[in-house]
Amino acid sequence: MKKELAVAALKNGTVIDHIPSEALFEVVRLLQLEDSNVQLTIGNNLPSSRGGSKGIIKVADTEFAEATLNRIALIAPTAKINVIRDYEVVEKRAVELPETLIDVVRCNNPKCITNNEPMSTRFEVVSREPVVIRCHYCGHTL
């Protein structure tokens, strides 16, 4: 007998699929979903057709700005976004690493002004494969 766990389909909302399992809860924090009042379904260590395991997040009645979702690319570059309206996928795309990251990453240079003054961090992407980013203020690379 085949057993399967059924999760209700979304009428409207966003599904973030193909998140590396180890990055799932970082994505939850990045999207600030931990204190959200929206209906949220989180699955982790699910089998993936691409091999290994994956995480998935379903957020009901929410569509995120493209810039917000693209911030995920830094920690989950394989993530796929599905926008659902009236139970239908109306948009499907991969996340893309933006050219500039603002308030996504902290500079690990203890002398950087962003670690000593109340201000936003800002990084430019130097390389996408592998991902290398440079602090706008002190030039430190990560």
Task: Please write out the topology.
Elements: E1 13-20, H1 24-30, E2 40-47, E3 53-60, H2 66-70, E4 80-85, E5 88-94, E6 100-102, E7 122-128, E8 131-135
Antiparallel strand pairs: 1-3, 1-4, 2-3, 4-5, 6-7, 7-8
Overview in brief:
By secondary structure, the protein is mainly β. It has helices at residues 24-30, 66-70, and strands at 13-20, 40-47, 53-60, 80-85, 88-94, 100-102, 122-128, 131-135.
List keywords for this structure.
elongated; 142 residues; mainly beta
Plain-language structure description:
The protein has 142 residues and is mainly β. Helix content is 8%, strand content 37%. It is built from 2 helices and 8 strands; from the N terminus they run E-H-E-E-H-E-E-E-E-E. The strands form 2 sheets. A 5-stranded antiparallel sheet has the order 2-3-1-4-5, covered by helices on one side. It is elongated, with a radius of gyration of 17 Å. The chain starts with 12 loop residues before the first strand and ends in a 7-residue tail after the last strand.
Shape: elongated
**Distance between termini?**
50 Å
User: What proportion strand?
Assistant: 35-45%
Portion of residues in helices?
Answer: under 10%
H and E order: EHEEHEEEEE
Largest pleated sheet? 5 strands, antiparallel
- Oligomer description: single chain
